[in-house]
Amino acid sequence: MIPRYSRPEMTAIWEPATKFRIWYEIEAHAGDAMADLGVIPRENADAVWKAKDVEFDVARIDEIEAVTKHDVIAFLTHLAEHVGSDQARFVHQGMTSSDVLDTTFNVQLTRAADLLIADMERVLTALKARAIEHKDTVRIGRSHGIHAEPTTMGLTFARFYAEMDRGLERLRNARDEIATGAISGAVGTFANVDPRVEEHVCAKMGLKPEPISTQVIPRDRHAMFFATLGVIASSMENIATEIRHMQRTEVLEAEEFFSKGQKGSSAMPHKRNPVLTENLTGLARLVRMSVVPAMENVTLWHERDISHSSVERAIGPDTTVTLDFALNRLAGVIEKLVIYPETMLNNMNKFRGLVMSQRVLLALTQAGVSREDAYRLVQRNAMRVWEQGADFKTELLADTDVTAALTPEQIEEKFDLGYHTKHVDTIFARVFG
Amino acid sequence: MIPRYSRPEMTAIWEPATKFRIWYEIEAHAGDAMADLGVIPRENADAVWKAKDVEFDVARIDEIEAVTKHDVIAFLTHLAEHVGSDQARFVHQGMTSSDVLDTTFNVQLTRAADLLIADMERVLTALKARAIEHKDTVRIGRSHGIHAEPTTMGLTFARFYAEMDRGLERLRNARDEIATGAISGAVGTFANVDPRVEEHVCAKMGLKPEPISTQVIPRDRHAMFFATLGVIASSMENIATEIRHMQRTEVLEAEEFFSKGQKGSSAMPHKRNPVLTENLTGLARLVRMSVVPAMENVTLWHERDISHSSVERAIGPDTTVTLDFALNRLAGVIEKLVIYPETMLNNMNKFRGLVMSQRVLLALTQAGVSREDAYRLVQRNAMRVWEQGADFKTELLADTDVTAALTPEQIEEKFDLGYHTKHVDTIFARVFG
Amino acid sequence: MIPRYSRPEMTAIWEPATKFRIWYEIEAHAGDAMADLGVIPRENADAVWKAKDVEFDVARIDEIEAVTKHDVIAFLTHLAEHVGSDQARFVHQGMTSSDVLDTTFNVQLTRAADLLIADMERVLTALKARAIEHKDTVRIGRSHGIHAEPTTMGLTFARFYAEMDRGLERLRNARDEIATGAISGAVGTFANVDPRVEEHVCAKMGLKPEPISTQVIPRDRHAMFFATLGVIASSMENIATEIRHMQRTEVLEAEEFFSKGQKGSSAMPHKRNPVLTENLTGLARLVRMSVVPAMENVTLWHERDISHSSVERAIGPDTTVTLDFALNRLAGVIEKLVIYPETMLNNMNKFRGLVMSQRVLLALTQAGVSREDAYRLVQRNAMRVWEQGADFKTELLADTDVTAALTPEQIEEKFDLGYHTKHVDTIFARVFG
Amino acid sequence: MIPRYSRPEMTAIWEPATKFRIWYEIEAHAGDAMADLGVIPRENADAVWKAKDVEFDVARIDEIEAVTKHDVIAFLTHLAEHVGSDQARFVHQGMTSSDVLDTTFNVQLTRAADLLIADMERVLTALKARAIEHKDTVRIGRSHGIHAEPTTMGLTFARFYAEMDRGLERLRNARDEIATGAISGAVGTFANVDPRVEEHVCAKMGLKPEPISTQVIPRDRHAMFFATLGVIASSMENIATEIRHMQRTEVLEAEEFFSKGQKGSSAMPHKRNPVLTENLTGLARLVRMSVVPAMENVTLWHERDISHSSVERAIGPDTTVTLDFALNRLAGVIEKLVIYPETMLNNMNKFRGLVMSQRVLLALTQAGVSREDAYRLVQRNAMRVWEQGADFKTELLADTDVTAALTPEQIEEKFDLGYHTKHVDTIFARVFG
């Protein structure tokens, strides 16, 4: 977790204080359920809630842990300092540390997912607004980095919207998958704790009970969670790369927002670097790198080994914090992206009409010219454009072999941009409903 | 794709003949739609269907491609040889190669997913049967590879069932995500082909129209598909690893099926190797290795570049073929796994009752013995078991300090396995409904 | 292994016939060593060499394997058909299958490395030739995709040369690391075979004896091998990406070679796609994807498990074949790359002299103008270039505040390209010696 | 970077104060070189050294950066506060930020490598000591987790030594590869800074000059660095997995050290978990996850983009800190590993002599018994061991068909462990010289 790539909303989820608060809630709710079942006295269960408004002292817990060498015991000892050690003596009864730790981790991941869902919604809002704004802003479509046929900037935003919207749906699935808790004991048999305790705690913590756990919650859920973040990060990189391409000097169809006052920019107006989207490209790699370790974590020996733990201590916070930061940065970039429609037209016309050569070729053959002849006709005019910088339409209109097959109006029509944008509304309706 | 790790059902999906067949169907259905729209003559559309029962000649198409250097044109040329080149002249009109190629790839992935779904169902059936069979077969649960508390073999199968059932659900999602097609032209604007053609073709091919495509179908769908296969493979490795552990000489709680007649096994009865599950461990890595490249494929330059293509030529077939083979192998291993309940009991009793020491410790404190004393009592008896091979229960019953706190019946009760299995039915009900 | 991305030189290494040939040589050399040690009769050792010129019948061996279910035994049986089963009865004595299999795999990887070394040398030759050819071809250097300062095309080639030369050095190390063999028996103790047999066989096969093996050769060697190929593939992608950028329509400083006769290109001269380098980008991903599984393969249970085997059956051939093909494709692309020096100059001058603004700013301050004033002076002239398309130098020469600080000669000098290229020879001497 | 998995020696390398110190040294040495070249006044160069003993104020630099939005400028501003802004005015002249940043990063990686080299040496020392200690401690070798033939614990340590020794050699190569610096300006042409400045600074900082750089040092060097760490981590996991297996309850041939006083361990002596080696397994994944992003970082657009930067901010510290911690933990585990030779013998004899069945089979055939008969003889005795727990040797000696072929002495000899350990010294000589 790198401070400069972090937002406090997300880092807060991973702070020790938050963790201890969740531990506390799990223990307190478990106490309630045990009291309801008659396993422990009601008054002891109630007593735990006395600490409801306490901010646990992280330094004090660390101090105790230095002695006990066990984090959960250290916390319970500290809790007893607030609740009274006699009152607290039934806390955690029949539970194992993993009951608390694993359920807490999933609470954190679920909350992280909720933030990421909000981030995605912000990205979607920005993409939709820019799509509508530039629905009819024509620019050249490119395959292989080479001019192909006209499209519109709005379609570019719309497809990123559709892609991110799929990402949001996947994220919602991943969130639901990870929102489980388990309080099932040392090997998952509920030997020392009633399954109804698990049910109560999960209901209170916004989780579903894990149908079958061992000492731990199965890690395929986590693998799916991080895999999903990896896919979303890849889509983010896709958008970032488009913007980086648009901003490169020779293209310059868009620029990341650059505040007027920003020094350097106006003495070197050509040197405004797409550093935010370059950064997003790198952040995507960081998010993605958690995917394979999360998958390697799925295999545990028998009812659990602890190999997954160190991995999760790192990727749990790092990956969610990085993606949260990145999605917000992405949203900001999209919201404020400076777009140059005029340059788009200039770029499209770089080879004065040549992008229409295929339409002309088709028109000639449809007008009855043989394929070979049509090809030859287009070629000789195209080469004058390519080599001498002539204008393609002008050349065609001046070529009597061409005008023998096509009327000036027909030729003119082949250069009509409306031909390419006629279905934009249809596509928008598909994407935005 | 390695022949020995392949099943013909899956490899068939990826054969050239299948690919050409799908290409044909797409072109023929597209022709129908165009005829309905009045874009091409009905009779030309109908003529294409004359080739309905043709098995296309792959060698002939390759021969043509050697000249044209273009696979789709080569196929269309060959198609014209069947349909008649005049009749065929409207085939593919207004479409780009990617319309056919990308839609075909998704048809193949969808069919591959259907096979994988069936594979998963076979695995689930096997797991369920064995879970029910061994619902009450007690064995020791282990954390960190170390004996913890008793559980049952049925619970092990049940949790693998639950995990694979989640995998199946994820696979169904992935299948739905990948089941889209696109016939939208060079940059996705439908400039030369009506969106209704796409709708018709997709309906006929069992796909949904891609709401917005460029020259290609967006690759986040494919990334999600391969990520999902990676998670399933990881769960498979989890199961395989459990079996490998069970079969190791010192544990020997289960063995992969070994046919009676198999030479070598009876002269060296101790040397039966879990080679199938070891193999599954390796195959899981092969499936997983497609995940990152599939994610790297998401980023394409502008309306498409072709960097993704070579990756997909490899991972499309390789990953689905490998996982299909592996899941079937896994199902077979589970179906026929030889289980040794007696060894399970022997293993559990290796340290004669010691796994119950925690329950005894708890009972002593609940009986009013101080924590320190209870610990000391358990310790001195436990050490006799550990160091001298004594029987824990016998020692406890002979220790007057222990019997001062607990009756023989109470001590006896702590060694009751029923204590650990009392919620097995509850868990089974959660998993199997 | 995809046929279209394969060269016969490399695929030959991985053919069954090659494998059997290596098996044969290992067995025959082992026999020699055993005879020298007096372990087996000399005549039996000699008899094996009768098969020296035999081309083993792969179909026949497969047929036997279908019965024996064991590949090495099948081969030995077939060998006995050539040598005579009495003569052959000491073949393989005291050895385990893995002795043959692992040593063979390393022979194959070593040979594959030799081909890759030759490939790298071809790439280096091409890069060096083009570097020298374009040593002084000035083009704009870009950071963040934005024009920065002038550099030369030769420097671009030279840095790719230096990078690939490091790759070659790494590859040589990896080759040496993998060039070991082991004939040490079931758990590596040489219980049934003398270490001198291993030494003899390795010497004959061009390998070093593995200092300590178990049943298998340790897999960290293989992990390092595939990691090295992954780094080389990444460098290849770096070069490919540069070319893809250079070819994009708006830049067009270079194009992959396109034969004059190639249809389509001249009727659509703007539509020449960098499909080879796009392909190389994808192939780099395929090479890279073997790295993590190869690392996962390092961990084996005790003296061996067979989880690594399926992984290696795939990545052994696939990765070496793909990289071999890719490096040759890369060499071809570089050798024939069409370079447009004139476009380079045009691109550099897109914002008429503006890339020199920083030098002018520096010159003004060095001439005693305050930073603030210098900045203001540069800015006002730069903005006329940026917004009105004026020429920067002309503007500066006409700005009396500027000329008050700098003479026309001094201003002129700031636009001298020689300033940027003065150390090219120094750098070339560093790279090419 | 997770505090609990960190050692201060390594984290110190990555602290802001260290970074600023390196920046300072680079700038000061660069000043010296420029003064020697007559580019700046000697006194200004000398003046910079006034700050030689200054501990730079990180908070103050952050404060300035909050205004300037540029880290290097913030540092230079702060430096001027110490040196005097007039004296400092030539600092950094002609250099770009990347000259400082990239060279600093490589200084840090080189120092990190030096620590890792020392770590590896500690691991090697421990492995060697334990190898010698247990050179003759016999235990069963296992393939596929199944008993195969006897080996010794010393051989296990020796092979880990050999593997880690290769790792050390690779690490030294990686260190040398990364130990380069570059001071070559905005696009690497040395336009504004003489190459001799780079040479001087590099010599002073313990680096070699990068033969050809752009704005940045080429990232293939870094990819190789992290790939090497990934291979080492994989070897570490290999060792950790061996220990985890040895400690599992049913095997119990070794245990991680557990201090006598450690509570819990003596009341539950069976429950000592290999948590350190499990942790190392997870840490290996964390180290390995940096490999692919480091390879993705190799491709930069033209003379640089900044996509690599965020990746390196994470993996630079995280990966080196994690591996440094892990290697020290590993060394400690090996140094103090508690080994149980008696259990090793017990495990080996689990199936009373059965592991020798293959030797007996061989002896019978060498004594002239036909393969079929020999097999039948071994089988009938082996099955009595397997099914009834008889002793294999006793059974053989009592089987008159066996004793007809082999004398009691010959049978006895087949059970001699010395047969398996006779080449241990040879192997040790290979490994340790």
- Report the structural category of chain A: mainly alpha
Morphology of chain A? elongated
Number of domains of chain A: 3
Strand line-up of the largest beta sheet of chain A: 1-2
Query: Proportion of β residues of chain A?
Result: under 5%
Assembly classification: homotetramer
Using the CA coordinates, give the radius of gyration of chain A.
31 Å
The largest interface is: C-D, 75 and 75 residues
Question: CATH superfamily name of the largest domain in chain A?
Answer: Fumarase/aspartase (Central domain)
| Count of DSSP H/I helices of chain A | 20
CATH architecture annotation name of the largest domain in chain A: Up-down Bundle
Q: Give the % helix of chain A.
A: 55-70%
How many E strands of chain A?
A: 6
SSE arrangement of chain A, N to C = HHHHHHEEHEHEHEHHHEHHHHHHHH
Distance linking N and C termini of chain A: 39 Å
CATH class annotation of the largest domain in chain A: Mainly Alpha
- Mean pLDDT value of chain A: 95
- CATH-defined fold name of the largest domain in chain A: Fumarase C, Chain A, domain 2
| Sheet with the most strands, sense and barrel status of chain A | 2 strands, antiparallel
Domain Adenylosuccinate lyase C-terminal (chains A, B, C, D): 352-432
GO biological process, one term (chains A, B, C, D): 'de novo' AMP biosynthetic process
EC number (chains A, B, C, D): 4.3.2.2
InterPro entries (chains A, B, C, D): AdenyloSucc_lyase_C, Fumarase/histidase_N, Fumarate_lyase_CS, Fumarate_lyase_fam, Fumarate_lyase_N, L-Aspartase-like, Pur_lyase
